[in-house]
Here is the input.
Amino acid sequence: MTTSSPRNAFYAQSGGVTAVINISAQGVIETARKYPKKIGKVYAGRNGIIGALTEDLIDTSKEPLANIKALGHTPAGAFGSCRYKLKSLDTNRREYERLIDVFKAHNIGYFFYNGGGDSADTCLKISQLSDAMGYPLTAVHVPKTVDNDLPITDCSPGFGSVAKYVAVSMREAGLDVVSMARTSTKVFVLEVMGRHAGWITAACGLAAEKVGDAPQILLFPEIAFEPQKFLARVDACVKKHGFCAIGVSEGIRNIDGKFVSESGLVDAFGHAQLGGVAPFIADMVKRELKLKNHWAVADYLQRAARHIASKTDVLQSYAVGKAAVEYAVKGMNGVMPAIKRIKTKPYQWEVIPAPLADVANQEKKMPRDFITSDGFHITQKCRNYLQPLIEGEAYPPYENGLPRYVTLKNVAVKKKLAAFLL
Amino acid sequence: MTTSSPRNAFYAQSGGVTAVINISAQGVIETARKYPKKIGKVYAGRNGIIGALTEDLIDTSKEPLANIKALGHTPAGAFGSCRYKLKSLDTNRREYERLIDVFKAHNIGYFFYNGGGDSADTCLKISQLSDAMGYPLTAVHVPKTVDNDLPITDCSPGFGSVAKYVAVSMREAGLDVVSMARTSTKVFVLEVMGRHAGWITAACGLAAEKVGDAPQILLFPEIAFEPQKFLARVDACVKKHGFCAIGVSEGIRNIDGKFVSESGLVDAFGHAQLGGVAPFIADMVKRELKLKNHWAVADYLQRAARHIASKTDVLQSYAVGKAAVEYAVKGMNGVMPAIKRIKTKPYQWEVIPAPLADVANQEKKMPRDFITSDGFHITQKCRNYLQPLIEGEAYPPYENGLPRYVTLKNVAVKKKLAAFLL
Here is the structure.
């Protein structure tokens, strides 16, 4: 094996999936095929990095071309993802040695890891294997997370689509509540994802274009939840507008830093009850303000909603997959393609390389000036930031009234090594 | 006033709104304008029948044409709806006399009521006023309910769109769960509407086209919920397919007939906790089977989701509005335009008049042979029934990444009468 002969690539999906992560996969696979002198086959890990550890590799060259193309409109992780964080090289050298064994056995010289902040850390560690363990490898991280909390990149692929979903859903549900408020529901609560950062909650706010539009209140994890202040706000809103629509992050915390969703619900038998901050908030409104309410928890519906994906997000997701391969063939190790915003109106962006060391294990929360001074809504500055990210529609094809999503064949690569216990 | 001179029409939206009820309004208004010799203006009730009682009428002729057209892509109730059921003529003659006073004052000769089963009853009572109180009036009910529980009509306008929404959402969330199941979520629960009839839950089942597809389990209000049987099924499903996706109706009941959602959750302070059957089911799975789970409650998101409305539903919603006016100008009193299925493949339907007396106060539940014998899924017969109802897409226009929904001017008609206390 010489460095000039083509080596195979490994691609894996990591952490919570999105509506558009498969588009990055498509970008990686299609772009790799444009460099046959540099890159041989693209092997995908079945269920993420676990696929590498267990030598459970998928040969994407065995996948019909139409299926690879269909990744462009199929949500979730087509190769399977996982929540599995590699420990440090010192703590668990065994896993890294195994990875090298698998890479060697399958002539893998490129490592593409499609994930968020934790995964960027894993990718960084892998990128250092080349020196640490004397195995030539080029590792590039492909950014993805609905949480939008990756640093350096202007936004995280996956976020724009969930942002569009929650903004559309809030606008629609808001119209429903307005219609009914005279005699029925007056308060509506929509719970969205975001354990530590309020980006998705902020996106709900895009639905409101003028005073009185839903949502009138947003609850961010960045702002401590104060029940009395909140209830006073709801009360005033219902008195003024006849109804109140609330977007709430799953991760809001009380003044003491405890998650509100863990405020201690128990069922009739005394069992601790699984959270859900929306029912908690709704119940508080009912009890304290005697207002009829409804609540929704979007959960996976939001991050899987390819049917209402943002076109901007779709394009960016492909672009980072493509750039990752282009960086790799240039020998750029330990980098991540990041989105750089050139202009907001009209929106212009480009992909630039970011050093992984600057990306890994960091969380980009909402800047304080993206949240209004009272803590209950987004500022114009935040709107300017968010708006382009939900721009454009990119509908999947339909058959029999349902989106025609692909299930890949995922043909396994023949194993060459002994089994490995996780 | 002679019977040949044009008389005005009253239109009102009643009960829970849908993604397409405004399309029926558009059908009524646009069709009425085609009969200028018979019908003068169309007055809409602000907040449904309450608008008639309080003489709070909206002059739809003052609405820009573009706004009336935009009703065709705007969800929820553009004139406001209400939950307000008229009592019988004997019990509350005062309200009927008031209605007649308002109708007389504004020369209203046509009454169009857009609602579900309860509203059909109200409309029937109004249709009888003509004889009972000597006031000439033609009353036609325009069917609408996401619950799909109206009799006679093959389906209820509004249902097809929520059916499409839940089927799409379940398919998408199911792909998410499959992706993550190896190391994370293994059970997903989606709660949908349907207090007494399982039609919406059944529609979730359309997402599954082959064995193993999500959802593998459906819980209908028509089938008593037996925890042990259910848990055994979940366990077997996870063992076989690696994950389990469940669609559950808000209205499932225990063997003793009690709503499962009212099974007695209390918060840390001992307050009774607002239901939500999905968190209850998910918690049961976690406790008894030790399986990681996620749950979603679609709530208003499902019935307001104009962005993913069914084209069939859109066409039928317009057709019943149009037919209602055509029946009225023919003098057909006390009827409802119903959808008649002519053929399932390819789908053909027509609108026929149904006597309101046969429609009012009846609930069409799922036939037993639409549910598999084990009670956990839908049969092929049910699929054949449901499939055409979600067929076709009818996207709203977008601006800045969001659907451009209309808010009507809703210009008030000048009041002529003294105030009326509800």
About this structure: Residues 159-180 of chain A form the longest helix (22 residues). Chain A has a mean pLDDT of 94. DSSP finds 14 helices and 13 strands in chain A.
